[in-house]
Amino acid sequence: MITTEINKTPSEDENPIDPPKTTIPEASPQSGAQPLAHQETWVDPLEGSSLGVNRKHVQFDEVISIREMLRTDPQRAEALFQRGFEIYCEAFPDPSERESAESLRGYLDDPSTGFQMIVVTMNGAVVGGRNFGAKTAVLENGEKFPIACGEHLYIPKALQRLGFGTEIVKQTNAMARSYGASLIISEQNDPFLMTPEEKALDASAGISPEDRLKFWKKQGYVAFDCPYAQPSLDGGDPVYYLRLTAEILDRSKIPESANFDGKSINSDAVLGIMRAYHGGFVDDLDSDPTSVMLKEKLLSRKRIDLIDIEQERSFAQDRVDLR
Description:
By secondary structure, the chain is an alpha+beta fold. The protein has helices at residues 66-72, 74-91, 101-109, 164-178, 196-203, 209-218, 267-278, 289-299, 319-322; strands at 2-4, 22-24, 39-43, 50-54, 62-65, 115-122, 125-138, 144-154, 183-189, 222-224, 242-248, 264-266, 303-308. The protein has a single domain, classed as 3-Layer(aba) Sandwich (Aminopeptidase), CATH 3.40.630.
């Protein structure tokens, strides 16, 4: 068994710090088996490991919480962090969409952030990861509900389209379900809002913004039909070409007062989700210009629809208007 150790389910008054223990069963050994069809070999330039990658069967050696490993093996945790961070930067070439290594280390050191950096390995090589957070969303009436934030998914360009991303999503979603998250959210680039230059930069990571949406649709994600922007990260510019998406994990964990019917939800619930998400990296949501703008625009509507993740949103989200 491969086990990621994490803390117990937190109370509703606390930020969840670590997802609960997730046990991943290993597949039966295939000693002497012949290589299966569609097998490719990839060499990690830093780890020096040669991987036989089978498109039909992805099995990780380890699913590792960097936060947990920092407590038990800080030297290895730092090496895994550095390799994971390099892949993260390759996967998100626009600096405004990612955070610095210093900021990520700060989140890992601060229990109140609920931040996880999950990396996966095969034959000793880091083959991907996902920055992941456990948060508590708050409605306008004060009711709380647990959510998860799947912040960034990253895989080396040479290993994309081999099933690694799908498997990483499965593992982190299992963590989210095990501590009771109602949904897991993620922000995605919106090709309807991107310039040709932004699309080209995004595609340089190995996948176009359109194909990213296709991938997340296959994972069960839908989009909130509402205005969205990412507040400034590490002093950079806000990002205005994004959309907020989610996979619903457990409807019963969403308060009845949010009036979620599977197709739409009260706007204050979406605001609570956004504020829980952004609160991890924005010092003061009530003074941050982007956060204030989003609050005003969301609360001007009573309900927010959930739409197909590939569908254009129903309103004109002009960048000038969002600023």
